[in-house]
């Protein structure tokens, strides 16, 4: 194997590391993109819940106001009858009924005031949520656009690298390339340094005669894990 071929292999391995880095980067961008969509959906649900709460409290207020109105009508009706009452018994009875209505009115009035307060704070919270929602959605939309652009750029770069790779591959000896491609499909680090006379991935000791070959700047598979070994420290980035 001549120096030119070795250089081609080194170039290919470095090149593949770059493609891998680009692919990892794109994967990260894509998962961020998915999480933005989830955040948007969550915000939309939260705002809907806030809106539904206002709606429910409004219904409660309406119900209580209607009940008050009915009590008012009943009171008016009984007072009108009181004016034309003919017997003392009927008078006492009406008075007592009005008194019951007045007690009921007092209780309902307190409940209505509380319901108004609850509605008021729900409306304020919804208004704040709505303003906040728009701000957050705008931020997320912008982030999503930036990520889409980054994903597009990374995809373009990966495609370009794949094209250029074919040229590099054609320059590497087929046996070494086969070993490399096989290992590349199995592990993320198919080519590793020899450190302390051992494979730096699986720590299996490299036999003395293999070390002698490796020291000449050649490549050999590890006897244990089959990763491609090299010694030259300056060979890879
Ligand atoms: Zn090994």
Q: Tags for this entry?
A:
237 residues, mainly alpha, Helix Hairpins, four-stranded mixed sheet, 4 helices, 78% helix, rod-shaped
- Tally of structural domains: 2
CATH class of the largest domain: Mainly Alpha
Helix/sheet category: mainly alpha
Percent range of helical residues: over 70%
Largest sheet: 4 strands, mixed
Arithmetic mean pLDDT: 92
List the ligand species. Answer: zinc ion
Q: Which stretches are low in confidence, meaning pLDDT under 50 for 5 or more residues running? A: none
Total number of beta strands: 4
Q: With helices defined by DSSP (H or I, 4 residues minimum), what is the helix count?
A: 4
Q: Looking across the biggest beta sheet, what order are the strands in? A: 2-1-4-3
Q: What's the shape?
A: rod-shaped
CATH topology of the largest domain: Helix Hairpins
Strand-residue proportion? 5-15%
Cα-atom radius of gyration = 40 Å
Order of helices and strands: HHHEEHEE
CATH architecture of the largest domain: Orthogonal Bundle
Architecture overview:
The protein is mainly alpha-helical and about 240 residues long. It has 2 domains: about 5-170, Helix Hairpins (Orthogonal Bundle); about 175-235, no CATH class. The chain contains 4 helices and 4 strands, in the order αααββαββ. The chain has helices at about 5-85, 90-170, 175-185, 210-215; strands at about 190-195, 200, 220, 230. A 4-stranded mixed β-sheet has the order 2-1-4-3. β1 and β2 form a beta hairpin. α1 runs antiparallel to α2 (about 90-170). The longest helix has about 80 residues, at about 90-170. Zinc ion (ZN) binds near residues 199, 202, 222 and 227.
């Amino acid at each position: 194997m001549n120096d030119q071929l070795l250089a081609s292999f080194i170039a290919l391995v470095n090149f593949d590391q770059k493609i891998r880095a680009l692919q990892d980067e794109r994967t990260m961008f894509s998962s961020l993109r998915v999480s933005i969509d989830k955040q948007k959906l969550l915000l939309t649900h939260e705002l809907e819940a806030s809106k539904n709460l206002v709606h429910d409290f409004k219904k409660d207020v309406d119900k209580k106001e209607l009940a008050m109105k009915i009590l008012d009508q009943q009171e008016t009706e009984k007072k009108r009858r009181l004016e034309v009452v003919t017997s003392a018994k009927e008078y006492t009875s009406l008075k007592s009924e009005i008194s019951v209505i007045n007690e009921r009115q007092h209780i309902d009035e307190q409940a209505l005031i509380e319901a108004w307060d609850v509605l008021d704070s729900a409306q304020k919270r919804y208004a704040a949520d709505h303003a906040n929602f728009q701000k957050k959605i705008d931020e997320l939309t912008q982030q999503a656009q930036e990520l889409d652009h980054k994903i597009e750029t990374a995809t373009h770069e990966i495609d370009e690298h794949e094209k250029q790779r074919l040229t590099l591959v054609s320059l590497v000896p087929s046996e070494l390339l086969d070993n490399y491609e096989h290992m590349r499909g199995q592990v993320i680090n198919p080519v590793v340094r020899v450190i302390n006379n051992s494979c730096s991935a699986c720590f299996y000791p490299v036999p003395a005669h293999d070390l002698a070959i490796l020291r000449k700047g050649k490549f050999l598979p590890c006897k244990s894990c089959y990763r491609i070994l090299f010694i030259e420290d300056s060979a890879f980035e």
